[in-house]
Design goal:
The structure is a single chain. With 255 residues, the chain is an alpha+beta fold. Helices cover 59% and strands 10% of the residues. The chain contains eleven helices and five strands. It has a five-stranded mixed beta sheet. Helix 3 (53-66) packs across helix 4 and helix 8 (192-201) crosses helix 10 (217-231). The longest helix is centred in the C-terminal third of the chain and has 22 residues, at 167-188.
């Protein structure tokens, strides 16, 4: 039964992310959870350290029920999504999320629960963008110390912008920038993409990157020169570096 419910919930998320073509299906599925499809809806994305997503989802259901609020929850690979009716303001939702974070942490004994708060959706047909934003905020919060809850307006990163684009657009962009590089790695059994990732992760510091890769700096320079040949992008130019960075990030975006 749990497996069936989890699959049912995952299908709802896929329908929301697929766009307006599945609006009727999304509305029908949400109503099955007691969530009206034609009223303002709140979207939250939750995650935590040292706690399972299933435990977070269970706590969300229990706490929303305690407030008399119907809720749809779905545990993904990195977060739990919650969709519920919300007649109040966005500011009231942010305060509720802050309280919810602490309540879930206490209930699950988790050291920290982070919650990304999406914009209020006017109806079920408008859920995609708030969902994407909430999930991106959640992952941004996980990656850094600071507040446990935030909205898109509080934290804006390139990952959020990428998350709003169609997966096929991101795939084409990544392939255009990195396709030749990846083909070379596969054909020659090299690790140029990994080298590029480490180089950018270390802010382009040659010595630090060479140490992290356990190679000589001259070896690293030769690899970077080959990367330039294959991609047509030179890490000494800011615009080219941005292209490479975004292509790597786009390729890592969840579907």
């Amino acid at each position: 039964m749990q497996a069936i419910e989890a699959r049912f919930a995952a299908e709802v998320l896929e329908m929301i992310l697929s766009g307006p073509g599945r609006d009727d299906d999304v509305s029908r599925r949400l109503r099955a959870y007691g969530v009206p499809s034609d009223e303002p809806l709140a979207v939250l994305a939750l995650a935590g350290a040292d706690v399972s997503l299933d435990d977070i989802a269970d706590a969300v259901g229990t706490l929303f029920a305690a407030h008399g609020i119907p809720v749809f929850t779905a545990a993904g690979s990195r977060d739990v999504v919650a969709v519920s009716p919300w007649p109040g303001t966005a500011e009231e939702l942010a305060r509720f999320a802050a309280e919810l974070s602490g309540d879930i942490a206490r209930r699950t004994a988790a050291p920290r629960i982070v919650i990304g708060v999406g914009d209020l959706a006017a109806a079920a047909s408008s859920l995609r963008e708030p969902l994407v934003r909430a999930r991106e905020v959640c992952q941004a919060l996980r990656a850094q110390p600071g507040p446990d809850t935030a909205t898109f307006a509080d934290i804006a990163t390139h990952r959020m912008l990428l998350g709003l684009l169609d997966a096929r657009v991101l795939e084409r962009f990544t392939d255009q920038v990195l396709g030749a590089l990846r083909a070379h790695d596969a054909r020659a059994h090299t690790e140029l993409e990994h080298t590029l990732r480490v180089f950018l992760a270390n802010d382009g510091q040659w010595g630090v990157t060479a140490t992290a890769l356990h190679v000589h700096v001259n070896t690293l320079r030769n690899r970077m020169a080959r990367i330039t040949e294959l991609t047509g992008r030179d890490v000494h130019r800011l615009a080219d570096t941005v292209d490479l960075f975004l292509a790597l990030a786009a390729g890592a975006q969840p579907g």
